[in-house]
Structure formats: C-alpha cells, structure tokens
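Hello,

Following up on my earlier ticket. Below are the two sequence lines again, exactly as submitted.
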Amino acid sequence: MRSVENNPSNDPRHISLEHEDLRRHKLTVKEFAGSRGAQERLINEWKEEIEGIVTKICPLSFFPQEFVLLSWKELQVVLAREGFPKRYEHWRFGQNFESQQVRDSYGLGRTYELVINNDPCVAYLLDSNSVQETRTVMAHVYFHNIFFKHNSYFKATDRRMLDKMGNHAERIKRYQEEFGPEAVEQFLDTCLSLDNLIDVHSVAFRRSVDEHYWSSSLDRRAPDPIRPVRFDVPEYLDRYVNPPEVLRAGVEREAKERDRRAKMNPPEPQQDILLFLLKHAPLEPWQQDVLSIVRDESYYFAPQRMTKIMNEGWASYWHSKMMTDHLLPRYPAETVDYCEFNAGVLQPWGSSINPYRLGVRLLRDIEERWDKGKHGPEWESCRDMEERRLWDKNCGQGQGEILRAMLNHNDLTFIHRYLTPEFCAENRLHVRGRDEEGDMSVSSEEFSEVRTMIVRSLTNLGQPKLSVVNANHGNRGELVVFHAFDGQELNLEFAKATCRNLQKLWGRPVHVLSREEEGNKFRLTHNGERFDSANASSEFVGYFDLDR
Amino acid sequence: MQNDPSSGPSQRSDVQQHYSSLETASLGIEPDVRRFRDILKGKVREDLRDYITSDEIIAQHGNDMISVPVKEISIPRFVFGSNDQGVGEGDGEGESDGTKGQGGGKKGGLGEGKHIREEKFHIEELADLLGDELKLPRIKPRLTSGLEQAVPRYEGISRRGPPSLLDSKRTFREALKRSIAEESFDEDDPVVVPIKEDFRFRCARLKPRPKTNAVIFYIIDVSGSMGELEKSLARNTAFWTDAWIDRQYQGTEKCYIIHDVSAKVVDRDTFFTTRESGGTLISSAYQLAKEQMAARFRPDEWNIYVFHFSDGDNSSSQDDAQAVGILKQDILPFINLYGYVEIGSHNGGGGFIRYLDGQLDDREEVVTTTMNNRKDIIPAIKSLLGTGR
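Thanks for your patience. The regenerated structure is below:
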C-alpha cells in the first residue's frame, strides 16, 4: 500500500503531553517497542489478535503468515529486487534501488506493504511505520494471502518461490563464474527483452517444459478424413438445409486450411514464444537454463499483474471491515489516523485508475447488488427509476457473490462481468484522450466506451499479442512472429530492437509481422547482420489470414 | 485454520533464514548499483547505450534545489506505441502527465511500473556541466547612464495607499479573517465588509537597477498547435538557457512572454507551466517585446537578448511579413542577439523559420535553429548561446 504524502502526524510535537494514551499509536513500531526482539514480540502479539479475527470473519483458509520487520534501507533493497531478499546479480535491480531511493527522499509515495505469494506467505513491515499503520497493513496482508491461496489464477504458481529465487540466483552465479559475468549479463538482457512473450492465458494451468505443445511431423497421426458439417434434419429438408454445393465448399475450405497448416511449423500459432525458443532454438545448455529462469519468473509474476484491481480491492474491502468492526472498537484512539490513512490509499488518482479504489468500490457494489437482488433479467428490464432506486429483494447473497468473484475471476473478466453503467456514472469513470488541441482531457463518459477501454488495457496484460506462426519460413528455417493487431500499433523502435534479440536466440533470420493503424501490413526483419523493414510482400501476406 | 500447526516453527526458521543476509550490513545490492552506474556512464556495455533514455522534467525544490530526472535503461520489449487514451476516475481534472497518480501502489511482489529516475543536482552544478559544452556569450558594454537610478517596482503590500492600488483580494481576505475571529461571520449570509484596518494596498519599493544590465526576453508560443512535447521541448531549452545565463551573470533581468494570437508578459512560473490554445500570431509577441523595450528596457542602457520558441505554424503569411517587419525595424537594430527555435510540429504547418531565414539570413545578430526531440535540446542551446554575442 502506498499513500501519497508523508504523514505529518508522525511528528510528536503535534500532540500535547496530557494525551499520552492518544498518541501512543502514532509512535513508530521501533519507538513503541524498542529493541528488535521486543518489536518482533509485539508483532507476534498483534498477529495472534488479527489472525483470530480473520478466522472468525472470513470462511477461507490462509497460508501460514510470516511478518518480516525491516528497516528503511532493508526494505529498499527488497523492493529493488521485486520483493525477494535474494535475486541473481543484475543491473536492473541497481536501477530499481536508485530510483526507489530518490523517490523516497522526495517523499513521492511511501511503501507501506509488500506481500510475497509463497507458502508460508511473507509480508514486510517497516519498523518506521506507526503502530496504527502497521496494524492496518497487517490486516490487509492476510487477505492478499487468502487471495493468493484461493484465486484460480494463482493455483499453478510456485509456492516455494522464496527458495526458488535463491536457487535461480545460485545457478546464474555458477554460470557467471564459468562463462564470465559479461556474457551471462548480455544473454540475460536478451532474454529479459523477450520476457513478456508468454501465454498469459495459460497461467491457470500447470506448465512444464516437457509439456507436449506440438509434435514433430513424425509422430503426427494420419489426419481424420474431412467430413462436411451438416445439420441433423429430417430427410425431406436435407437438401434445403444442407445444400450439397455449400457442403462441398466447406470441405474444400477445410482441405485448404489443412494444407496450409501442414506447411506450417508449428501447426498452431504458439503464444508461449519463450517455451518455443527453449525447445527449438539452438542454445547452449546454460543459455537454455537462463532462459527457463526468466520464463519461470515471468509466469510467477503474471497472475499478480492480472489481478491487481481485484487483489487490492479484496484486501482493502476486508481490512476496512476488520478495522471498523473489530480493531478500532478495541483501539478507539486510532480512529482518526486510520481514516486519514485509508482515505489516502483509496483516493481517486484522476488521470488514471487507482486499483485499490476501483477494486474495493466494485466489490461493495457487488455486495449491495446481490444483497438486494439488483441483478438478473427482472432488474435489467425494469425501467422505472423510482422502483430501481428502492429495489430490495432481501436476497442476502452479497458475501457469497464476492467470494465467488474472488475465486474465479481475473481483472479482465471481473470488470467485464461486474462493471455496470450505474457504477461508471457514480464513480465518474471516463475515457481520456487527446482532444483537438492535443491536450489530454475527458473524451467520453459512455459506459460501453469506458468498459471497452478498461478491458482493452487489461487484455493480454495490456501488451501486444505475438505468436510464432512459422519456424521454417520458405523452408529456410526463418522464424515468423505475428502480431495480432487489435487497433494499437507497436512501438517501432522497441520492436526493431526486440526483433534483433529474437534473432540472437533463433540464429536464423526473424520476421515480425504487424500492421499500421491505417491497415498497411509490414514486416520487420533481422537476418543477424542487418535490420530491414518493408511492406509485407506476397510471401508474407498469407500469414495475415490468421488474424481473424 | 486448516494450516498444520506442526509445520509452523520449521517453516518460520526457513523463511527467517532468507533474511539473515539482509541483516548483515552490506545488503548486497551494491554490485548491482555499481554495474548500473557503469553502464549509464558508458564504461561498459556499449550495446545498451541505445536504450538509455532520459526524460527531463523541471521542478524547483526550495530555493535552488531542483530534481532532475535522469537516465534510465529501458530493456526493449514488444510494447504498444504511444497510447493517447486511458481511463480516469473522479473529476477528470487530474494532470494529464499522471503526477496525481504518483502515489501509485506497488503491489506485493509486483515488479512492474516505470518510474522516472531522478537525481539531485544543484542548479549551479548543472549549469557548469552545460557550460563546459558551450561558449560564453560576451555581453557588449552598453551606455550606462543612469545606472544607479532607483526605479519603483510594485511588489510590496502596505496598509496605506491610494485607492488605485487597492489589493481587493487581500483586503477581503483580511476582512474575512477578522469577521471570523470576531464571530460576526454568518455562513448563511456571508457578507463581509472591510473596515479601515483590513485595507491592503500594493506598494512601490524603490529598487536600484542591477549593475549587469542585460535583459533576456523569453517568448514561447503556447498555441494549440504546440503539443505537450513541443511545449516541453521549448520550456526545457528556455529553462536551461536561463539557468546557464544566471550562472554566468548575476542580476540579469528576464522578461517572459507567452503568446498565441495575443501576447502577454507573465511571471516565471506561469511561463513554465501555462497551457493555452488557439491560433498563432507571431507578430503579437514581437509587438509586445517592442513595447516592453520602449517602456522598461531602453536599448541604450540594456544588453537585450530575445529568444523565441515556436512551431512556426503562424496563422497567415501576412502575419509572417508583419512579424519580420517589426523585427527588422524595431527590434534587431537595438539588440545583441535574436534567437529563433522552431520546434518540428507533428501537426504539420511550420515554416516561419524558412521565411525568417530568407529575410534575415545575412544578419549576424540572428540565430535560427530547429529541434524535434529531446536530443536536440543541447544543440539548440549551443546554437543560441554559442555565437558569443
């Protein structure tokens, strides 16, 4: 959790001495408890108390929860390494660290909380956060834990990632010693440049390198004969419903399609390009291992990026409930500070979406709609505004629906399923775009446009969808990577450089096919020596038929 | 909880083990930081040089501390090009540059998010860095008659003064404060009547004229055709030019002018932040500069520099002619240097620079240059100041 400003109430000068009790929760954990040992005992006390409440109010189990108290500097290191205490050596963690330091020194956003999806679940607490902040953060953390444990998109993630990251670091260290740090770093940079070329839709499944994604032509079975698709109707209708010329055309189309696929290798587009490279690119064993490390880590982080709105919304929904119903009654002096803290976390950001806010509001909206029965055909067809306003069927299914949403959805499906025009209007969600003056401003408040825009930004994690469509183009072993164009152009400078990196791994020439917004089809090609781009000629134009 | 309690303690020590290395002093991040810095400095890994991006944003902290976002290495990936659309929430009045979102959350274990790396410099240090690359403009000695003459400037507040200098906003604020303190303020009938001690007047302070009498006119085109990028290029160039001249010469006067179809003199903050829109009449700015010269900066007493930033997308060729007319007649003969920077506009148009070059190519007090992206900032400053005039 982050809040925009530093909390001036940490300054003890603001509080007069008579109110000794009232200000104790404003002390930092360090000031409150003293030694590290005492701090840890304190956290354990709170942990027991909070765990008791969590168990009481939420029906779902959680992973054993570990809290690790860190100093400012320690937290910055962990943050720089994307949450893990140990990672392989790489300059980008140094870059993260430096930018984190500068941000902190300007007070630009403060990190309150960081949770790792692991069994046991690990969360960091900053010893210079106040007692009240720490208590709220701890309550919040338990629900990230529950989310990690139960949301279906996390089911296949590695729950021993803490160990595994350490293991990755060791392996890369060994390669650095054997092949030289520079060579390993260069190869790592090449792999990192491709680390988003995974199939994010597959995160809900278990994956392994051995999985049989596609087979070589040798073990391909003889294809089934092509049968026309016909509708099952009484015979007297058959020649009208299943006209022979249409059936014939269908068979021909299918034969042509099979023919085309037979010439393709792989027969189906492969979105998990990293896996494809792992299996088929001419890599040294150590290179293969480094690539697999990058791919594993990429798949590990993907579900978190796919569920940001839900995950933060879910945790914020529950921490509010915990605080207002259970913890604040026990510690009333914290009320005002808690409210201020909570407001900071949930405030609208204006020009972009605050996932904490959108998530928690949408969950509360779902709760209300399912409690009052404001969904389904009867509700949809009701046009009487007054009736709609007073609608309450006393269904009491709110909690159940929230749980169901949490278990089964990712941000994309969540928004698509639950966002309503009323919610958009109430929260003043809007599409921003460049106006004719070239400035950013509100361009639409239309529900369908807002939803489309959010859905689009979440589709494939907001990244272009690329697949390997042919690994043997022109029978010359050239790789063809196809960008399924959905209205947004590629960043060309980056695409060129990334094409170059693909080529480094593939060895043979690599073609990247994409489109301009006006429809112009083009290819980017790197043949190992130089880069070249051109309009897609006849030999490439066939691939665009895949774009359906 | 269904969690097996027996596994608890062993797992705990397991997890804590991972952090034992953190508790030792070194923390182990230094090699990564060192490596990153070496790459930035270009000592190693030439292949990454192309991906070092720098995105300068100007912000002044306190008196002279500024935050200068500096270089970052972005690993190239297949990503979408510039995305001019997004979804906002709330009143939609957030800054389009997303500063409002700076409180942005970084969720547990999530390594995404692009921040701009900032580094602290004192403005003097930076100006010196720049100075290494540039030649110093030599300021011509001008007649210094009346150098010590003190001139009145309206920049203070006083409790007494003539009605014409009444500062009504301050006056009413004082009155409001008083009436709230007296508890005579009624929210339902919010009438505030200032009495004598509430009145505030702007007052003149006598200010001795500075010894180095140079004035720099910064003129920026803020018309609609100047997009965010163009404006930020213009402002950055102006800012660094300004910073560097300040470093070289204490006490230079500045005159900031913004224009679209009409021009106005603004303060420094406004100059660096205004977003306007509308058409462009370049002559309006030159007319105003001319008037300012006549009123405040007489050419026989001042070294005058004029820097103009525009996309050159003037509304009419008629106005091109008129603008150059004013330049030729009333400005160029009296000033040390006139610099015109044309910023390549993605809206097409442009072209004032061609007209200007055609008309004034041979005059040595004229410098024109073009810029299209951030890489052009330093060359542009060089050509503006490199003449040594």
